[in-house]
Records
---
Amino acid sequence: LKEYQGVSPISKAFSLKEGADATVRGWVYRTRSSGGVVFATLRDATGVIQVTVKKGAVSDTQFKDAERALIESSVVVEGKIKDDKRAPGGKELAVTAFKLIHAAEVFPITRDQSPEFLLDVRHLWLRSQHLTNVMKARHWIVHYLREFFDENGFYELAPPMITKAGCEGGSTLFEVDYFGEKAFLTQSGQLYNEAFITALERVFILAPSFRAEKSRTTKHLTEYWHLEEEAAWFDNDDNMRLQEEMVSFVCQTLARKQGGLLAKFRKPEELLVVEPPFPRLSYDDAAKKLKKAGLKFEWGDDFGSPHEDALTRDLDKPLFVYNWPRRSKPFYMAEASDGKHVLNADLLAPRGHGEIIGGSEREWDYARLVKRMKEDKLDFKNYEWYLDLRRYGSVPHSGFGLGIERLVKWMLNLEHIRDAVPFPRVINRAYP
Amino acid sequence: LKEYQGVSPISKAFSLKEGADATVRGWVYRTRSSGGVVFATLRDATGVIQVTVKKGAVSDTQFKDAERALIESSVVVEGKIKDDKRAPGGKELAVTAFKLIHAAEVFPITRDQSPEFLLDVRHLWLRSQHLTNVMKARHWIVHYLREFFDENGFYELAPPMITKAGCEGGSTLFEVDYFGEKAFLTQSGQLYNEAFITALERVFILAPSFRAEKSRTTKHLTEYWHLEEEAAWFDNDDNMRLQEEMVSFVCQTLARKQGGLLAKFRKPEELLVVEPPFPRLSYDDAAKKLKKAGLKFEWGDDFGSPHEDALTRDLDKPLFVYNWPRRSKPFYMAEASDGKHVLNADLLAPRGHGEIIGGSEREWDYARLVKRMKEDKLDFKNYEWYLDLRRYGSVPHSGFGLGIERLVKWMLNLEHIRDAVPFPRVINRAYP
């Protein structure tokens, strides 16, 4: 296999001068032949280049191979760089040797396929330029998120996936048979993060979370990647400040360092304006605003897409909606002094992209936490360890959870969350 | 809560001069009182410092609080730095204000607890200096692994956790009820990685994998973090070279940049000697060696702990054992030209720590792959998408999987793999 080594990435071939020798390898992206010439484009992980194979310029066998190399066939070609203004990128490769590595069957994906079919052949559709670019951008978004936490002295830890304790209510739990015992796939690593801070103070995890969501929306997956942060001694204001700094850092860094990639999705300037502070609206004020705008909404309701859209339609930066009604939020959120609200905030992405982060100060008092757990009728047996965190050196603390795919959807301005992850899992789909 | 902000990490307090004011916060690590003085040590995420609280130097209420602050109580203290050769680190804090944030109940962990009890209170045992240091080191090990891949142009992707296709045989699959359909928790993201390389060429994933291991050993978890790499156009030699460069980079970087932390586990020099090339032994030669050493072993057998131990007991660097019998390895590994072996390698850690990486060239020919899948009696319905990768532009490629906890166990010289992960999952344990 050594013969495949030492070739140039396609992006580098574009920096070569007219007449230079180049060997590239990759997959046939487009191809047609006409009058003894095969005009094709090849793609690799770095780009797409035009290649021309002329009868006579290569052996007869090689020319026949070039003719029968259907799209997605894998090839290695040698040739000379030629400047050509009509070619994408202004250069093409005039082929002197054409090696067909594998002749593809007729590729099943053509134009105008249904979304369901494209999910069936997701393993092939991932080769599309659109999804390839999404996955590159996702790589960088996750990379910059980690960079932000590194620079701020956070430790990354690994939470368990199989647990006894749900965190966000029983209706969306996936059940696992754990050696004959009933267990669940984690909905969140937050409760574990709250244990980690008693040793490491500032921590984050980036791991899968699971929700058996029965609704089909453009914002829900049953399996998603969850960035969860937790910090000892942080109150809800510190928490919001950390979130807006983090989101701004990722937006700015992606726009500055990966501007060409980002430009395939939206104008990079649109993310450059994302900087602290973000606008803040109390839940109570948001409720008034929604009613005033004529939407059906009662105090205590959660937001649906129309509400998120109404609040963020005209915004360029994400919006914090803080201090939600206690009864609408989970047991672990700290109560405000009025007993009716909690010290929390949801961060809504601009232009109706919806919630990307939920965060709060945590209830750190044993007695108040027990009261909330009783109200929520939780099975104490599975939460004894969590209560221990309030028995032995409890400290004020806050944290948040960010859905990676929701962040990617907003940052890249995608229509549907399923395109923010390579193999989306939604109701009735665990294949491929 | 603003009052808790702006204090010094304990590690910084040690750089202050005699007489300087300092405020630190954390948890009571040890405490005793004698003759109107409370002698305590406090820990935070950065270190441990001695504090003395003298009756009269603080208010009476504060002195009483200092007396009743049992270990693991959370506190904020103000005081003056004093040089004291008897104190750990040579400094102590003479307290002028003692604020008890939360008075802990009697901490349940005392000396000489059983391993089972320590697993029951894992959420508290994580606060021990030993586990705190392990988790810090794990953070850095994972950090340097990612750094290695970044520097070599790899993209990180996210594989699905819930799948239809097993990869390593049916006996260790966990079943999930996926909306009434039978699905499994992933054993490996490799097959998905093989799809990713057709667009991005060099990829890795770092995600949980699951094995319903019924055996209790010091090397197995039911849930572990799996670093899996895959690269288009790489043969098994490229694959082994990449592995030895990666493992060497992580060992050297941890020893050089986190030498103080590493020294709590082993001499940093022991990891500095880990550099390419690693010793290599064919499976056939290994089999001869094992027989010669008098161990019970037949050609075709897998290694057990005694075999791994015999082969690596005297080594300072990991050992590649390559080209295993075809019948002992999974269907996706490429056959050697003799038809009896596969083009693969297992990487064994020195001194009996066991296998840390398994890798191979992949079978990229459609017909040969189908033959192997039939031999293994796989249900083709769940692998059609994987076969597509050999129908449309198949390329030679290789990859490997590394168990993060096994790497951490070896690098930190831990006795048991469960201490390499915060909340270990083993047979009959999914709590806490």
---
Amino acid sequence: LKEVIMQADQTSPIGVFDSGVGGLTVARAIMDRLPGESILYFGDTARVPYGVKSVETIARYATQIAEFLIERRVKLLVVACNTMAAVAFQTIRDLSPVPVLEVIEAGARGALARTRNHRIGVIATSATVASGAYVRAIKGLGNGCTEIVSQACPLFVPLAEEGWTDHEVTRLTAREYLGPVLAQDVDTLVLGCTHYPLLKPLLREVAGPGVELVDSAEAVSERAELLLRDLKLANPGLEPPRHVFHVTDVPMRFQEVGERFLGRPLGNVQLVKW
Amino acid sequence: LKEVIMQADQTSPIGVFDSGVGGLTVARAIMDRLPGESILYFGDTARVPYGVKSVETIARYATQIAEFLIERRVKLLVVACNTMAAVAFQTIRDLSPVPVLEVIEAGARGALARTRNHRIGVIATSATVASGAYVRAIKGLGNGCTEIVSQACPLFVPLAEEGWTDHEVTRLTAREYLGPVLAQDVDTLVLGCTHYPLLKPLLREVAGPGVELVDSAEAVSERAELLLRDLKLANPGLEPPRHVFHVTDVPMRFQEVGERFLGRPLGNVQLVKW
């Protein structure tokens, strides 16, 4: 794989991958911030969701996807899936000849930059919470006196995919999940799953005006911009970008759900049969 | 594969398979009705849920699982997954040297036996509803003048797995999904997904006393009893039954969720690495 990096150049795409469509919110943030960059997206829609799978299985799948993208000459890998970032980041970095960014560190940095009372809430899938990755990232980057309250919210993903982003059921579910977190007086809440940005208005309402929401998708796109500039790998934009979306299955309502997440039409979608 | 059937005998196990843990409600109904039979269960927990995947992918996975069980000398296959039964039953029957039963025909028969006003409601996953399988089964078995109202309820599976079986969020979700079905004056409601029996008390409450619920798990276990007797393949029960549970992943809370679905301890669990 070491030869690959020699072949990647400024015009090479950024590889963004996720267990499904959720990572399209990250692709969207990168497109908005870096309109000259091409994106090679991989969504493992046949095997989604990862959030409830074992660590071994998640690491095996992550390796397979990262190798797929590296073989296609990406210049940078972005792990858009919180679950993969939480349990398989080290595995991916060890195998990759190109730099790897992920949403958790970015979200942790964003939260630390915003909190004033050093009490941070993190909401995510069960696997992400159980991994303790956000707690480690925030403790590792912070000054050590930060209190972190984590809460698994497994129903938010199906609710976002059902399109119930402004629905009484979602509001009630959010109150149930966020109640114990808000009771701990946090002033910052990390949306630790790529699906959650779609619930942002509702979560902002439930959390109230005293709590700032941190969106990892925006945070990681900022990191990508800086890193590409530092490595002199930013695309000079002489040609229009080309985006390709690889998926392992074309599930029902894929187009509709995907375009809602991406915020624009899905162009070139390729089916990968694994 | 034809040689396999020659090797299967009365003491061979019944193969029961599903996309995940949901089919354990079917295994449970069979254990309750046929306590002398051994069960070889297969739950594709690494690739669950199937309900939103494409027909091609579901058929490919179903073939792989059926072959796995046939190679292990089952005497009967029970497709416990409504989604697989809806879109891949023909594929499975074509490849199988042993008889195949599935939940949809059984549920359709149960509904027709109970309805008095010939208005039947069916609730299931999006893929099952989109396949039209229940409508075809009920129309095919009935006298042709039955009205069928179908409703996809994608949030019921995550709600059942979250354990919110008696929760205000689930009640509100059930009212939203069932509202249009009940407005059509149905007197019978088919629970067209293996997860739904866990929500039975709540669904009974929301549906009201005038609506009878049909549980496909019970219906298919009845069919299995009759078929084994007809084929002289019922286990004489000289030795205690042996149950083995194959899963493609051991997800978080598997033991807890699985035992809730099975209604007893999970004994011999084997991990299949695909």
---
Amino acid sequence: VKGDFPLENLPFGIFSRDGDRRSVGVAYGDDVIDMAKVADARLLDDVVKNAVEVFNAPTLNAFLETGHGAWRETRVRLQTILEDRTTSKEFLVPRALTRMHMPVEIRDYVDFYSSIEHATNVGKLFRPGGEPLLPNYRHIPIGYHGRTSTISIREKVRRPSGQTKAADAPTPVFGPSRQLDFELELGFIVGLSNGEGRPIPTEDAADYLFGVVLLSDWSARDVQSWEGQPLGPFLSKSFATTISPWVVTLDALLPYRVENRAQDPEPLDYLRVDAPWAFDIDLSVSLQSRAMQTAREKPKEIVRVNFRNMYWNAAQQLAHLTSNGSIVRAGDLLGSGTISGTNEGSYGSLLEATLRGARPLVLTSSETRTFLEDGDTVVMHGVAAHPGLPRIGLGELRATIAPPEW
Amino acid sequence: VKGDFPLENLPFGIFSRDGDRRSVGVAYGDDVIDMAKVADARLLDDVVKNAVEVFNAPTLNAFLETGHGAWRETRVRLQTILEDRTTSKEFLVPRALTRMHMPVEIRDYVDFYSSIEHATNVGKLFRPGGEPLLPNYRHIPIGYHGRTSTISIREKVRRPSGQTKAADAPTPVFGPSRQLDFELELGFIVGLSNGEGRPIPTEDAADYLFGVVLLSDWSARDVQSWEGQPLGPFLSKSFATTISPWVVTLDALLPYRVENRAQDPEPLDYLRVDAPWAFDIDLSVSLQSRAMQTAREKPKEIVRVNFRNMYWNAAQQLAHLTSNGSIVRAGDLLGSGTISGTNEGSYGSLLEATLRGARPLVLTSSETRTFLEDGDTVVMHGVAAHPGLPRIGLGELRATIAPPEW
């Protein structure tokens, strides 16, 4: 099996066939395993309680709540079933015949800020003259709560309107954002709740984190710089967050874990982590303008960066998030924050790549870009691949910018 | 009928009797109207679609989704029913026999910052030497998203732990907050969704906003000042937000609307509002230490302030929130932000009342308070009363500070 979804991956999602109801699917090669059928055939009764109900559901939330043992054993069981081509055939639907839906009902959404390179780049742009990295950055996995109602797998992102104020203007104006941007991120989906809010130590994180999606934190930079103080980003982000439809399990990504990035200073005890929580995932963003699409030019890669270099990892974020007694629930989403490196071509947002518009990108069509134009399509990919191991992909996040609707 | 809940009020909530399932109730005097019984008697079929199902539900969300016409007609119908003492008697349960539950499943929670006095007071304390009010304040109803998993009607608030750093310390420490505070707010509950995100003009706000609760945005000030930049408050707030259990409808509060506060400069077009959206609601916070409780001393009033003076109103907040195409849903909660005045005794948080601990409050027990101590009970009330009109109350928000549990 070629592509992102070999036997060693088996990511979970929600799909339907024409006019049919939504239920759980697992991607395998160019097919979807119809998990409702597998459950209806009573092949999952011994690994998941109420399997028929859990896999006939319109979201993954019930499956998430079954816990790490059930997640793991379901994948192992599927691998066994798929080895028998005759039996497995009746459960497979060609992916081309399916339609994907939002995989999870999102409960709380926190967007972190865990690339120290991104934080430094942004600090330089938003606070010129100041120290780019604030004093708390190396002590706290900085994050903030985001809006859940606008998280989707939609492939259309409407340009938002908002208040902006030019530096030399006396007063703000309201209108379509002129600095629309993407942010390349990964999203970690929480599977298990900590009930009444018992803090989750870093060593238990694998029991609570189900899997990973690609995530774009769409951002209106002109709105963000005017509204962002003192309480942080709000409408500059809340209009849209999109994720990829297949949730790749942490179990599938285990072989691609690498040593954690060194942290200086050592974090406080509750944030120390011994197990490796860095993942060697090669990420890319490509951009295709409307003109390129018309000319059948493929999207141009404008970002390539590896997830392994993030300063803070998901185990630390989950420990931090719950250190004050906060409740996490199945369906919580933890965004990594923009993933950026230090070199040209490794910046996970146009804000950084173009120095806030000062250094436009040149596309293969010879068009230039400072921020996104209507009709631009953004495509994100993520792949884990080590010598001697299969290639595991996150699938694709794709979205086209639409003009303001209202 | 005396107290907060006369015939002209009729707030909605979720209640149960011993061991019984949860369903919709309406407070009337010292009783609860069992709405499931009223619906089962088919007395609401012509005002609410699927009334039996809607009022037998464990949250108000289904009722919220029925829309403004149904909310209004349900109250009018109840007023008619209650006029007939014989009929109505069978629907009433003494409140003393009931237990209240969370009225609404909260979807997204936004906490605004709409008291200009509060923003000014906090600006002075958190940014000494700087301009207390940031340049965007008079143009934007500033707000941020908060955590929904920890919103409750619980009467116990655990002291959170967190990272703090003393100004003169080289590094942060982790431990129980020593600056635990309340924030006196009102919360507006969204009833109707705007579907795919069509902006809600200020003149339509009454169709979308169902009602009001008391809200305390519990805050760990020492955590807040260390974590809060650059992305805003996070763990300093996410450990607990509590609300009062009865949702007072906007319809009930209509007679207490007063002229909007003058805004200078005039807000941008999308934020202009002609109808009055200021409410004359007299609010108070009282504090009772454990020693006072033991000595049977009643809580001492430490805050009294009126809601009418808020700079930004809920219609403007809803218009702002949706101006970028954001989706609102039944069960969204909009916090007003701390309600403060300019005089001693009118500050809606201890941060302001004690100048961040510099000027302790003296309780009737002769104890002093800078921030909350374990065993302290905070009680909030809100009442609307005009000459010639009945007194309409919001009920009570009450919570006692418990020591750190973990």
